[in-house]
Fold this sequence. Notes:
Blueprint: H1 18-22, E1 38-44, E2 50-56, H2 58-61, E3 66-71, H3 72-75, E4 88-90, E5 102-103, E6 109-115, H4 118-127, E7 129-134, E8 144-151, H5 154-160, E9 163-170, E10 173-174, E11 183-189, E12 194-199, H6 204-215, E13 222-225, H7 241-253, E14 257-260, H8 263-269, E15 273-274, E16 277-284, E17 290-302, H9 311-318, E18 328-337, H10 351-369, H11 373-380, E19 389-390, E20 396-397, H12 402-412, H13 415-427, E21 431-442, E22 447-454, E23 460-464, H14 473-485, E24 492-495, H15 513-534, E25 541-548, E26 554-565, E27 572-582, H16 589-609, E28 639-644, H17 661-678, H18 692-706
Parallel strand pairs: 1-14, 12-13, 17-18, 23-24, 27-28
Antiparallel strand pairs: 1-6, 2-5, 2-7, 3-6, 4-8, 8-18, 9-16, 10-15, 11-12, 11-14, 16-17, 19-20, 21-26, 22-23, 22-25, 26-27
Helix pairs in contact: 9-10, 10-17, 14-15, 16-17
Amino acid sequence: MTRLGPTPFGQPKLRREDERLLRGAGLYTADVCPPGLLHVAFVRSTMPRSTIVECDTCAALECDGVEAVFTGSDVHHLGDLSIAPMMDVNGTPEYPVLAYQTVAAVGQPIAAVIAQSQYMACDGVDSLFVDLEELPESEDDPVTVTGSWNAGSVDAQFSKADFIVNACVDHPRLAPSPMEPRAITVEYNASNDSATVWLSTQTPHRARLELAKILCICETRIRVVAPDVGGAFGMKAALYPEDVFVVWAAFTLKRSLQWVASRSEEFLSATHGRGCTSAGQLALSRDGTFLAVKASMDLPLGHWLPTSAVVPAWNAGRMIPTGYRIDAVESSSVGTCTDKAAVGIYRGAGRPEANCLMERLVDEAAAITGIDPIDIRLKNLVKNEDFPFTTTSGCVLDSGQYGKALQTLAEKADYAGCVKRRDQRREKGELTGVGVAFYIEPCGIGWESARVTLRPDGTVLAATGGSSQGHGRETAIAQIVADTLDLPMDTVEVVHGDTRTCPTGIGALASRSTAIGGSAIHEACLLVRKKALESSGSEEVTAELNYKNEGEAWGYGCYLVELSVDRGTGVVTLESASCVDDIGNMVNPMLVEGQIVGGFAQGVGEALLEEVRYDEFGQLLTGSFSDYALPRADNIPELSIFKMLTPSPNNTLGAKGVGEAGTIGAPAAILNAAMDALRPLGVTTLSMPLTSQRVWEAIRDATRETL
């Protein structure tokens, strides 16, 4: 084949999805309306740790339009959800589709009302009587997940160290808050007792597998379709109890059903993120050489475990010491089930937890030695010639120019000028700080599938086992196909998210869509190209494969933040922010920048504003956006973005992930900048989010002690 024109790979092509979405022509799960559709609403627990004394459904059944009411006794025989086996699970976690006999947390579904309209179903919920009796604290050991990563002579290195610094980091529990809440529509087919499950999910094939297993039915009776998905951020990776119930009820009633979560239900019962409390120590010599690190991570799990529940704890523990060359490491991670909403993967999934702790330790090391924060990082980061580099915790870092990234940031963001401005303003009594953070980002492991068909008319159908949550996958895949087959992009049709029309795949998780999913598409295109050259030219040519990467691709980069703190109110203002990200070979720089900016905004949210709060009785205090503060436009400074492109040797495209970069690098840089601003006052620790009250109290306490 002869190239027809410039390659689309690496070009900032506009997203092909946007035109129909902006015209209101998208199709979301709640838009699907099969004939005879019934609606589901859930009765939720108002108390944690309780016995269900009574659940009287009589009044609900008498409500207009109510067709059925189900309770835990109807579904307690169903199977359990699979848990990813990355860490040891101690105990047997429950996966109650509806609470049976007892409830574990506020917001847990107790009963379900099915009616002719959503409003009628809600009326039925209001009419259903539930009597709960609080249970005493359990004396049984909670379900936990545990892991440890140890190497080198940690105690010996600590004993010879000139300095030992400490750091603790509290990550707030976060609500992922995608624009589209959870939703499921089950279209029942009476002719063959099957169902098409329209589901707002990141993992359609895994959802079908788990539904079939839990319901004990053949997979062929279930088709899962993820149509347009309005955001996910890890929250839609799990198969929820509500999802299982709606599918079970559709088969039981032989009717089509729909459930769309309200925003309040999302705060109550969708998976949360973060919530980790970490503590660490770093031993170093007088010249700033890092000798050994100790780290412990304590993470909440909630009252049930999503499939990827252990991933944050696993990543948080194994990623220490991130991108630094430290020969002795002692790292442990523990996740513990609690009487609150489940905690799952949220954009970053353990990476921010490891990175924040390590970067706080590095800044403390800079402070105690008097070495510049950039210089001490340059001294200890893995060197170019050491790649591939195996860390003491066993992670194999594939490729990179860590020092160059940091030096580029210092130059492009004018680090010297930032420090000079900070010092000048401090002389005037202002509280200002400059914060730097380096990060690494593992970008998924395993395999993904692809099927590419070159039609006789020259058009191409590309089907991926991955999925999309509004992050431009159709555009990126079309670019890869067009580049590999040397065809115009408008000849490429992309399909995804449908278990009937797409090959079995993993889905969109852990920044793996391009590195693994894109490589699968590329490999399938190469096979098609080879077959086409060997054919008569008038045949339809198809290639389908499962692609497995050679190892993890590790993105990396660094962030720099300037901020000020109002001494009288504690208000933190981000004044400037810059980043350098190395994401390997780049398919579409516009999509890359969108991911970086979006991740940065969510990183700002964690650092400054967002926090899910429960009271001492297990009641949710942040049940709406009136109480849970998402960042607004005026909270987000302009982000200066700079890129490096060091290909990964571990996948065909040479790509590294970028979807979680901002959530990993930004919080650490902001936290370091805030500590830099307040260190002259004697402040020694800060907890996220850095709300005005929390920062003001830290200032008050520190200045009171110096009086």
